[in-house]
Each structure stands twice: as structure tokens, then as C-alpha cells.
Amino acid sequence: MMSSWKYAAAAASLALMAGPAIAQDWPSRPVTLVVPYPAGGNTDTLARLVAAPLSDALGQPVIVENMPGAAGTIGSVHASQAEADGYTILFGTSSTMAGVRDLHGETPPYAPDDFSGVTMLALVPLVLTVSNSFEVSNIQELLDYARNHPGELNYGSDGVGGLTHLAGEVFQERAGIEMQHIPYQGTAPMMTDILSGAIDLAFAGALAPIQYMNDGQLKIVAVGTSERISALPDVPTLQEAGVEGYDVGSWFGIVAPAGTDAAILDRLSTEIAAIIAQPEVSERIAGFGFEPMTTTPAELDARIRDDFQVWDTALREAGLL
């Protein structure tokens, strides 16, 4: 008779052999891409923009399943509990991955560790906008003024605990300045007040501010990403201005349940990167005001961990956790 430890060893050996075989046969049936937001929005459009050519590349349908609700939580929880077999993947965002504590506090229904990264799809850069009534012309002048007049400036956000609030809190902490926070109920009223001069500055997604800047209605003095963006090649990053380590922006990407075979993650990442590189796809993405960007699975894992730490620290310093 075979002893129990021999049974265990044999089972482990079979499992190790099964992994590569499963990955080699994958996909043998349709793959579900869970989008935790309603159909018709930019996130859904981006997901479908990738899903159709990905179906062709994999030789199996990639079915987009919209599971909206609770700011992306319902679909994210569903995907986190799916089998790690490569047949369920999730359209993830910086908010649903790194910002999960912002959404749910200390006891979220899932954690970033419940997922393995596949690839980023696009970066949504934040820009630092300044009212025309605030007489500075560049980021260095703004920093000098803020450091010499602590607490005098104010900045708007689209809501307490949101990304633009986070961006402002991290900016204060890393630039060594102090500003008053003025939260709004959404981006539109915030932009209205910066255009009118009711607030001094604000972080916002790049698309609308660029249009206002081109019309001479406001100034953009810096971008929040670690590298300059194609739409504003002459506008420096905050890191270039000496705000060490500043890299705050929203992103979209694909993740899979934790434990998904590395060969499947690599295959998905490679195929999606080729799709994003196609001019007709990258141009559509740029038209949304996004920066097309892909990563390896390991790079996305690292980005999620880093962003989670940044969000967590900023939320605690702001007294929101």
C-alpha cells in the first residue's frame, strides 16, 4: 500500500504537471470580461474596444458582462470569487483596486491581493489647473507662493475621499505646503468655480481642462503623472518641479483572480498589448482623453500595491480612515 505521504507527494506532482497543461489548452471556451460599471460609459466602451480583437487573438469569444453597482464593488467582488482558471477576468480601475478602502473603509469586501495583474490599458492623467485670477504663470511660482503664504490658497475637489481630493492631499504633503480643501459634488461645479475664480486651483482629468486652457479660460501648470503627457508636451510634471515621488492618476486595466496561471496572465498581457498598439485602437483611447499604456503582469501588480499605499496614507492623513 502507498503511504499517506506518498499519496500527498503524488497528488502534488500531478497538480504541478496539470498547471502547464491547463495553460497550454487555454482557452477552450469563452472568456468572461466583467465590467463593474453600466453599459455605455467610457469604461464599458474601452472594455469592448479590447474585447472584440481579443476574441480573434484567442480564438474564443470574450464576452463583456456588465455588473454595475456600489461604485464598482459588485462586479469586483464577483470576479474576486471566481475560479482562477483564466475564464473570468475583470476590468479594474485605480479606484476599485487601489482605492478599495476609500470605498469601504477598514473592512472592504475584497482586497488587491485577491487579484493578479494582467496589464494596464490606459492612464487617465490628472492636471493641476489654476484660475486665471490667481496670478502665477508656472508651477514654480505657485509653489513659491504657497510656501510663503501657508493656508491662504484653496483647492477644489470633486468630493471628499475621491481621486482629486487624494491628489490634493498628496500634493500638500509632498510639496510641503498647506492649503484649504473645498469639496464639491462632482467635477462640473468644481470646474465652474475655478473658471470663475471662486477657487484658486484644482486637480482634474486632462480632457476638459485642456479645452478650457486652449480657450484661455484657465492655466494648466503641471501634470500629476510621472512623465509628461502627449497632449501637453510642454507642461512639466510635478516631479520635475521638485515634488518628489508625485505620481497620482487614474488608470484602467485588466486583472484576474489571484492564483491564475502565470502563463495565462502572460498570454493575455501580450495579446492585449498588441491590440492597444494598433493605431486605430490607441487613437480611440486618446480621443477619450486617456493615455494608452500597457504593462506586464508584474508591473501592474506593483502599481496596484504602490497606489494602495499612497491612497491609504493620504486617506489616513486626511482623517478619512
From TrEMBL:
Residues 1-23 form the signal peptide. The keyword Signal applies. Keywords: Signal. Coiled coil: none annotated. CDD domains: PBP2_Bug_TTT. The keyword Signal applies. Belongs to the UPF0065 (bug) family. This is Tripartite tricarboxylate transporter substrate binding protein. It comes from Pararhodobacter marinus.
